[in-house]
Amino acid sequence: MRCTTRNGVTKASSVLLVVAALTGSLLAGAGSGAAAQGAASRRVPVAPCTNDRLVADGAQRVGSSQVRITVSNEGPTPCVLMGFPTVALAGQGPPDRNKPLDAVRQGTAEPVRLAVGGRASTQLSFTPVLGEADGYCASGATPSIAPSIVLGVGGAGQQLAPDDGGGFALCGNSVRVTAFRAAGS
Over the stretch 35-56, which tens digit does the pLDDT of each residue have? Predict the structure, then answer.
């Protein structure tokens, strides 16, 4: 492009400035679009945790009438665990042959995002059996003793025994349960 007059030079430089501004806007727009797409991918909904991807590590005693149960996401992708488990007493047979307990919820439930291998815990508190050997209930109820519990989580039950080899002994037919929290919190 050959410009010999001052107006011609001004016009040519104006055109170049407009082209440069448009090119810069397009490139900046592509960058912000990519940034928006990256932000959107971070907000992709995560599927709920289902029982087929959760594994319970066992029932760890944390007191004479309390146990902590930790579940791990062994699935191929992250998942979200929310809410409170259900609890039932069970024998040594199949988990569907159990006695459901009334779960008294403690605290509020918030979503817990579990990465692959991520863990979440809940704590169960039973009304204790008092005394030695056969024991008794302060309420006068007959104590219940079971070798295992069935923890309802992710749409199905997982049968667990206490990690110390004992049984679950309680008075009444209720248990206090906390909402799932990220393990260690």
Answer: 444 444 456 678 999 999 999 9
For residues 113 and 168, the answer to whether their CB atoms sit within 8 Å is no
Q: What mean pLDDT value characterizes the chain?
A: 80
d(CA 178, CA 109): 8
Q: What is the pLDDT of residues 144-167, one digit of tens each?
A: 889 999 999 999 999 999 998 888
Task: Identify the residue whose tokens are 């989580």.
Answer: 153
What is the distance between the alpha carbons of residues 32 and 34, in angstroms, rounded to a whole number?
Answer: 5
Three-class DSSP category at 143: coil
d(CA 68, CA 147): 16
Of 161, 164, 158, nearest to 148 (Cα)? Answer: 161
Q: Which helix (H) or strand (E) holds 37?
A: helix 6-42
**φ and ψ at residue 32, rounded to 5 degrees:** -70, -30
Extract the tokens encoding 77: 């992708």
Three-state SS for 114? strand
Let me know: does 157 contact 62? Beta carbons within 8 Å: no
Q: How far is CA 106 from the centre of its chain?
A: 17
Q: Enumerate residues 6+ apart whose C-beta is below 8 A from 30.
A: none
Looking at the chain, the number of H-run helices and the number of E-run strands are: 1, 14
